[in-house]
Amino acid sequence: MNDCPIEKNEVNAITAARLRVDIVTIFPEMLDGVLNNSMLKIGRDKGLLDLRAVNLRDYTTDKHHQTDDTPFGGGAGMVMIPDPIFRCVEDLTAGETGARVVLTTPGGKPYTQRKAEEFAACGRLVILCGRYEGVDDRVREHLVTDEVSIGDYVLTGGEIAAMAIVDSVARLIPGVLGRGESFEEESFSEGLLEYPHFSKPAEYRGWRIPEILLGGNHEAIRRWRRKESMRLTLERRPDLLKRHNFTHEDRKLLVEIEAELGLRAL
Ligand code: 6GU
User: Is the shortest distance between the CB of 25 and ligand 1 below 6 Å?
Assistant: First the structure.
């Protein structure tokens, strides 16, 4: 098992042709800006993405449209009650099989590129945005298929996490990204951080770009980029390097980098 976030896209080959995601929230307006701009907008316009913000309040049956209540056992804060959530998900997935029902929660499993690939392969998600102190545990136990967290910090609600999930899954659906933005390049540098990029001008405020990028020696440039990817990964994410499948060249590059680091320490 390799859960590294920027690895070879192994599940890509069986990515669904289209993606439908229902994002269930009590703040549907929070999602408008994200769903209606950039690649998600383009993917929707192309008919590849069917992304919907669903208002949980539409599935309440009481006159106050209540979605939360006090916790049994006491304590501060409110808990999202199960009935609107069950009714909502059952309505959205009626007549379907195989939908993944995702709960965003800081207590979930870490969300990774591997999970994004799995979701893209599925092609059908319902994302429940957790709010308040939490969600009645019967939702988690009897409705949810995946509980995910996007990192070790606390958000006020699951909406921003849901947007991160939608964006990362949508870009894996074929045709959502144009050739220019394609993710083929990153599968090439499997499990390593990206090398530094430079554009015009070649000198800006006296800062020159690495000379090798101006030379037109494609093999030398490829090797330099691989080495800089390795260097950045070693510095910032040594945990990724531990799981990396090193090529013969990678080992040589690593030896060079370590020698350079050793020299710097002198
Ligand atoms: Cl998925 N939800 C919330 N509320 N906070 C988070 C998170 C999710 N992931 C990291 N922090």
Answer: no
Reported as a single tens digit per residue, the pLDDT across 21-67 is 999 999 999 999 999 999 999 999 999 999 999 999 999 999 999 99
Q: Is the CB of 160 under 6 A from ligand 1?
A: no
Question: How do 19-25 and 79-80 pair as beta strands?
Answer: unpaired
3-state secondary structure at position 149: strand
Report the alpha-carbon distance of residue 183 to residue 60 in Å, rounded: 41
The amino acid at 34? V
- Cα 91 to ligand 1 centre (Å): 26
214-to-31, 86, 194, 211, 217 alpha-carbon distances in Å: 43, 59, 19, 6, 8
- Of 157, 166, 110, nearest to 135 (Cα)? 157
Check if 105 has its Cβ closer than 6 Å to any atom of ligand 1: yes
**Which of 127, 155, 163 to probe ligand 1 with, by most ligand atoms within 8 A of CB?**
155
* pLDDT tens digit sequence for 158-198: 999 999 999 999 999 999 998 767 665 565 557 899 999 99
Pocket test for ligand 1, best of 23, 79, 154, 160 (most atoms within 8 A of CB): 154
Burial of 2 (0-12, 13-18, 19+ CB in 10 A): middle
Q: Look up the pTM and report it.
A: 0.91
Q: Are 143 and 89 in contact (CB under 8 A)?
A: yes
The answer, yes or no, to whether any atom of ligand 1 lies below 6 A from the CB of 104, is: yes
